[in-house]
Structure formats: C-alpha cells, structure tokens
C-alpha cells in the first residue's frame, strides 16, 4: 500500500512540475534551478517487492524522476541503508553521496565505491553523524560530521509543557 501511495503521489508531483514547463537552461541560481525538493527517507520502499530488472525499468518512478524531473525543477534527497536499493540509473545520476558508518564490512564494501573510499575507512567512522561526503564538484570525498539541529527555546518550552 505504501508503495502505491508513494508512487502515485510522486507521479502527480512530476505531472504538476511538467505542466509549469522546464526551468531555464542556464539558471541564474538555485532559486531558478529548484521549484521543489522531495525528501524520501527509507527510499527502499519504492523498490520493495521488485526484482533488479524491475527496479532498472525506465518507467520506475525513481528512474523517471532522477532522469527527467530535474529539468522541471525537482530536487531529490533519497535516504536508505544500502545503495543497492537504488537502480543503476539512480546511482549514476546522484549528484552527491553521504555515507555514514555501516553496520558491517559487507555493507561497507557495497557503499564505499559511492564515495570512493576504502571499506576500512567507512568502518573507522565513529557513528553519530560521522561520514564521508562526495559531490560532483570535488574529485575526493570529504569527511564530515552531520550534527542534529538544535532545538530552539520556544520549541523546547512547548515540548516541556506537553510532556
């Protein structure tokens, strides 16, 4: 059911963006480049129950969005535990990769090529947001520390009252 709902919603978003027409060929900045960002945590739900062959179909929603929707202003942030949850088309078109500490060396060996580091380097990460980031603008991955957002005072007070 989640797959059907998510697939349908993403197709509607894509149709809506297509109806607005393409973004400028040479956008002046991010305000012209992006009309909408879609964030999908546990993106593997879009490939659950599908074979590798089905996941690589050009009509699969993630493949369609990653290859076609960019020219209509869609930015995507996809999160999953394993890169193999994504088709080869999605992996090839990803502009940036953030890889955090894997659970085991087997997972590290599968994710290491995405950031072009050795699996052992991934196993040395400390956890808690420690990771490697690689984007198209730099040839090498950078070690980064992802920090949680701090809670603002009004939000903290509201949380205290409801507890």
Overall description:
With 163 residues, the protein is an alpha+beta fold. The protein has two domains: 1-93, no CATH class; 95-163, no CATH class. It is 40% helix and 15% strand. It contains eight helices and five strands. The chain is globular and about 45 Å long.
Q: How would you summarize what this structure contains?
A:
With 163 residues, this protein is of the alpha+beta class. The protein has helices spanning 2-19, 30-33, 52-55, 61-68, 88-93, 105-115, 119-123, 153-162; strands at residues 36-40, 74-78, 96-100, 130-135, 142-145. The model is unreliable at 156-163 (pLDDT under 50).
- For the biggest β-sheet, the strand order reads 3-4-5
Tell me the strand percentage band.
15-25%
Structural class: alpha+beta
Overall radius of gyration: 18 Å
Uncertain runs: 156-163
Number of helices, counting only DSSP H or I runs of 4 residues or more: 8
Q: Based on DSSP secondary structure assignment, what is the total number of beta strands?
A: 5
What is the mean predicted local confidence, pLDDT? 84
The largest sheet is:
3 strands, antiparallel
Order of helices and strands: HHEHHEHEHHEEH
Q: Tell me the count of domains.
A: 2
Helix content: 40-55%
Shape: globular
Distance between the termini: 33 Å
């Amino acid at each position: 059911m989640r797959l059907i709902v998510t697939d349908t919603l993403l197709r509607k978003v894509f149709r809506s963006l297509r109806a607005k027409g393409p973004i400028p060929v040479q956008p002046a900045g991010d305000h012209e480049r992006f009309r909408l960002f879609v964030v999908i945590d546990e993106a593997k739900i879009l490939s659950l129950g599908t074979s590798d062959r089905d996941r690589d179909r050009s009509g699969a929603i993630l493949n369609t969005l990653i290859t076609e929707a960019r020219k209509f202003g869609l930015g995507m942030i996809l999160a999953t535990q394993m890169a193999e949850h994504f088709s080869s088309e999605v992996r090839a078109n990803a502009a940036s990769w953030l890889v955090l500490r894997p659970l085991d060396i087997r997972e590290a060996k599968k994710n290491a090529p995405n950031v072009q580091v050795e699996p052992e380097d991934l196993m040395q990460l400390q956890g808690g947001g420690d990771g490697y980031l690689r984007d198209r603008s730099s040839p090498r991955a950078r070690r980064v520390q992802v920090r949680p957002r701090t809670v603002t005072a009004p939000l903290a007070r509201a949380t205290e009252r409801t507890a």
